[in-house]
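batch_manifest entry 22 of 60
target: Anti-sigma factor antagonist
source organism: Palleronia salina
requested by: lab member K.T.
priority: normal
notes from requester: please return tokens only, no post-processing; we will run our own comparison against the previous entry in this batch. if the run fails, retry once and flag.
--- input ---
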Amino acid sequence: MIIDTHQTEDATVLRVHERRLDAAVAVQFKDAVRAASAGARGRVVLDLARVDFMDSSGLGAVIGVHKMMPPHQVLELAGLRDAVAQVFRLTRMDTLFTIHARAPGAEETAVDPAQAVHHHAV
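--- output ---
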């Protein structure tokens, strides 16, 4: 599980480099996000633009990450592909999260992941 961390002016962006968030990677996903968000400043935005499949285990992992955030931080989502957005809509979890069309700073970092501040592999 690889997650790049990129700091913008007001958010820590965690870009997930997985095509699937399902039962096979749910535990790794939570561990990787926990490591990547440690010491985050400002908002934490989970960039799921590369994820094209999510099942209930993946959704549960995202909700688990939301619950583990410190009280002063909030988890936001960005870049949901249609199939992933549909999972959030069907379960009404889209009412729990702020969802952005694109992650803050996505234009600058999408081309070269080597520019990321941190690269976490779990």
